[in-house]
Amino acid sequence: MTELLSFEKSRPNAHGPRLPDADVDGPGSADLLPSDQRRANPPGLPRLSEPEIMRHYGRLASLNYSISEQFYPLGSCTMKYNPVANEVAAALPGFTDLHPYQDEDSVQGALSLMWRLEQALCAVVGVERVTLQPAAGAHGEWTALRMIQAFHRSRGESRTEVLVPDSAHGTNPASAALSGFHVVEVKSGADGRISLADLESKLSPSVAALMLTNPNTLGLFEREILDVAELVHATGAKLYYDGANLNAFMGICRPGDMGFDAVHMNLHKTFTTPHGGGGPGAGPVGVKADLVPFLPTPTVERLNGHLKLDFKRPQSIGRVRSFYGNFGMLVRAYTYILAMGGDGLTQASLDAVLSANYLRNEVKDVLDMPHDGACMHEFVASARNLAPHGIKALDVAKGLLERDFYAPTIYFPLVVPEAIMVEPTETESKATLDAFATAIKEIVKQAVEDPQSLHEAPHGLPVGRLDEVATARQINAYLQGQSEDPVLRWKPAS
Amino acid sequence: MAERRYTKSHEWLTVDGKTATVGITDFAQSQLGDVVFLELPAPGRKLSVHESFGVVESVKAASDLYSPVAGRIAAVNDKLAAHPELINSDPYGDGWILKVELAGELPADLMDEAAYKKVAGA
Predict the structure, then answer these.
(1) What's the pLDDT score for residue A477?
(2) What is the reported pLDDT for A244?
(3) CA of B17 vs chain A CAs: smallest distance (Å)
(4) Could you say which of A316, A340, A364 is where a domain stops?
(5) Cβ contacts of B34 on chain A, cutoff 8 Å
């Protein structure tokens, strides 16, 4: 049995510490709030004693699964370990006691961190300037597309299409659509890489940009990236780099040198800030010189050793985030970069690629490998070889949960049937990788010998196999007014 | 029964006089898996060839639906709102999606069953 909701445990007369009545004169809430803003009845909050609510949250916390406890090989997500040193730096009172409206002269340290982080990120990806404002990767994509749009408009060009490969992250077409572009898909070739012929057929003076991630979502390096850049630039379009997979080649090569004009980075992936519910994220965007005028305001500028925020940038797309981005994440990422150094970042990428190839090699005989040869920092396997036993990628994933591993990304990228996408990252030991490979081998054996038990997995976890189909149908029926039952176990007393 | 024709985007249609019935193919439903939701247009809307007219959503994926023909939507299969599983259980029968009052000729890119089987890799 999983933990009951606090509402279900509520007892009518339970309460936490009682506060004494006010013994000083002063206005009460009745004096401070106009009557139409005051509620007539107290809110329907659960009633529990302090130990009851503390134990409730304590038990919920123990059900949590996180990178600080377990292996989290979620493909395309770079679930690296988040170093404690980052937290120590971010907790320094010089950072935590800042107020965003403080005078520039009193926050030179914070501005210096932003300036230095920008310089470091410029060096890693090979661009002219970086904005630190975007709050996450998709926000970075959107910010970059807005800059590209502003660039074309400044030249009097109306470009309405954005090209996206069929293996792209779903956020790419979503960001393009949100920016008002028409999305056109570019096909992958049989080798899993972008098809130059298909790209050429879709390029036209209407195309504003091609969005690409390299290595791509199949974990394969786009070898023809220089040709891709040449084709794209020849039509006047820009090349956008989705930085989700930057962990594959830091210090080895740079998107800027490959011809990318705008590059987003996920500090919560590549630069070890917390990720996935533990965030918030941070998705800085780097640009080449001709996009610099369009960067969001304010930028951090240095003049005679003094740092200032520059709001006077007439061609800027404006602010994309309140204040200066998720500053605490910037502190953590900068700490990581300083702790690693340039050589350390290079080693991290080399080890990430080594981990992925080691693991791929360990499981290549038991799962289908749709693409031959070495992978980069992640690999995509397919569970289609288990189809004769009625076993799907979903069953393999559930079997992994039962064995105390977080499941890899499944059913993505869409171009691989029954995809299982594994990204171990460099922070895992060989022992962990071996344990994971052993679990995969056990599951494949179970698929052959006892597929029914795998269909019923996970056993022994707080929640067993969920009926996703029935749930989704029931929710939709409720949303469409065809059912009264909103699927929830608990309903508020009306 | 009228001959069934197919599109590259995995819709099918049959034509009876000036009315076409449109659905998604058995291959499409098998690839999508259990369908949980359909977003469908209102009758009366005009469609051009290849125009996206709705979305089919399964636990695995959400895909656009494209009109194989030009015309005006004469009817939408009401049963699908409460029973999206009809797309899986009977894609060529009770799982039909639209009836379209045809405007003009049928497009030239429609395929017969043999040609579609090659596209679907069946």
Answers:
(1) 80
(2) 94
(3) 34
(4) A340
(5) 469
Chain B residues inside the 8 Å CB shell of A477: 82
Q: Provide the shortest C-alpha distance from residue A477 to chain B (in Å).
A: 6
| Residue A245 token pair | 């997979």
pLDDT of B69:
95
Residues of B in contact with A482 (CB under 8 A): 81-82
Name the burial class of residue A19, with classes exposed (0-12), middle (13-18) and buried (19+) by CB atoms within 10 angstroms of its CB. exposed
* φ, ψ of residue A303 in degrees (nearest 5): -135, 115
Question: Global pTM?
Answer: 0.86
Interchain contact A469–B (C-beta under 8 A): yes
Q: Are strands B71-76 and B46-47 parallel, antiparallel or unpaired?
A: antiparallel
Indicate the number of domains in chain B: 1
A476 vs B: CB within 8 A: yes
| A118-153 pLDDT, tens digit each | 999 999 999 999 999 999 999 999 999 999 999 999
Does one domain contain both A379 and A311? no
- The partner residue sitting opposite A473, judged by closest CB among B60, B61, B84, is B84
Residue A1 is predicted with a pLDDT of 55
Please measure the distance between the N-terminal and C-terminal CA atoms of chain A and give it in whole angstroms: 27
Q: What residue type is assigned to position B53 of the chain?
A: F
CATH code assigned at B69: 2.40.50.100
The answer to the question of residue B109 being in a domain is no
- What is the separation of C-alpha B65 from the centre of its chain, rounded to a whole number of angstroms? 7
Count A/B contacts: CB-CB distance under 8 Å.
22
Q: How many domains does chain A have?
A: 3
Tens of pLDDT, residues B3-53: 999 999 999 999 999 999 999 999 999 989 899 999 999 999 999 999 999
Q: What is the ipTM of this complex?
A: 0.72
